[in-house]
Amino acid sequence: MHTLSPKTPGWLDWCQDPSVPELRLPAGTVDAHCHVFGPQTEFSFAPERKYTPCDGGKDQLFALRDHLGVARNVIVQATCHGADNSAMVDAVRAAGGRARGIATVRPDIGEAELRDLDAAGVRGVRFNFVRRLVDASPKEALRTIARKIAPLGWHIVLYFESADLPELADFFGSLPAPLVVDHMGRPDVTKPVGGPEFSGFLRFVDRQDVWVKVTCPERLTVTGPAALDGERHAYTDVVPFGRRVVEEFPDQVLWGTDWPHPNLTDHMPDDGLLVDHVRHVAVTDDQRHRLLVANPMRLYWPDENA
Ligand code: 0GY
Asked: How many Å apart are CA 256 and CA 34, to the nearest integer?
């Protein structure tokens, strides 16, 4: 067995006893953004990784899925596994049709390997521009990957900081596949929701085949998880941003837990509370059905009716 690495100092482990959400998720809800970490005894972490997490394997993910009342998962390759997709693919296969995957691949990937990933349930690649997570994001290499995955009908998941969108928007617009933006493009929630930065993001979403993950209030919040008395209403500073996206683009939004929540330094969220957060951003049954069921089913399971 390979040598096991210790966790990054200060690493926060995922919540072991999430509460039962008050919101009963609609049947068929998809958690469209989550990861698996290892377990390290089975799946080693990548040498180029920027952090070493705790284990968060498929069995624990599926237990959370069942606890929250989620039906399906979209498992996004975590940067700690680099371009070795084996832990993610193993989890997707083990879910028996109840999971899809998003891979990280290198530009020299061959057609046969892409076809194998597709057969396993992978439906997209992730391009990461967050500098604390990856060494570089060379555009020519990403264009090559985009050209290779487009014929499979896959999409491209984009992770970037909001301040970088103006510089990246033309590049994103030139990519030959649908785009899915992580965590609402990571807005600075201390700025007004109607201000130039978030309005620029909404214009970007408006003009192309773009989907938005209304995810990670725990990552975007400045005020923190303090819930309003008895209402299980936390991360209130992020609510206007999520609500705005859901109202403007009800058919382009996706939701996910981001379990096991990499790189949080301040607090670890109660995943049950994250489910209840959904009530505040998608305020009608119809909005919630689109966000949680209809939209992700159209993107990830287009052959099944939702
Ligand atoms: C997220 C966010 C982060 C990390 C990763 O793959 C990853 O390592 O996605 C982050 O640190 O902001 O979506 O899980």
From this structure: 7
Per the residue annotation, which of 31, 90, 258, 270 is the catalytic one?
258
> Rg of the Cα trace of the chain?
18
Taking 3-state DSSP, the helix, strand and coil percentages for the chain, each rounded to the nearest 5, stand at 40, 15, 50
Q: Alpha-carbon distance 203 to 124, whole Å?
A: 24
Could you tell me the mean pLDDT of each successive run of 10 residues in the chain, 306 residues long? 89 97 97 98 97 98 98 98 98 98 98 98 98 94 98 98 97 97 98 97 92 98 81 90 98 98 96 96 98 98 87
Give the residue whose CA is nearest to atom 11 of ligand 1. 263
| Contact by Cβ (8 Å): 31, 69 | no
SS3 (DSSP) at 103? strand
Give me the residue label for tokens 């965590």: 183
Residues 7 and 206: their CA atoms lie apart, in Å, by 41
The answer to whether residue 237 is catalytic is no
Q: Closest ligand 1 atom, CA of 258?
A: 14
Tell me the whole-structure pTM to 2 decimals: 0.97
**Ligand 1 atom closest to residue 215's alpha carbon, by position in its atom list:** 13
Of the candidate CATH numbers 3.30.9.10, 3.10.300.10, 3.20.20.140, 3.40.190.10, the domain formed by 30-300 belongs to: 3.20.20.140
Report which ligand 1 atom has the smallest distance to the Cα of 263: 11
How many Å lie between the centroid of ligand 1 and the Cα of residue 305?
31
| Residue from 79, 104, 268 to probe ligand 1 pocket by mutation (most atoms less than 8 Å from CB) | 79
pLDDT number for residue 298:
97
Is residue 226 classed as helix, strand or coil in its secondary structure?
Answer: coil
Provide the token pair at 184: 């609402």
Q: With H, G, I as helix, E, B as strand and everything else as coil, classify residue 199.
A: helix
Looking at this protein, which amino acid is placed at residue 130? Answer: V
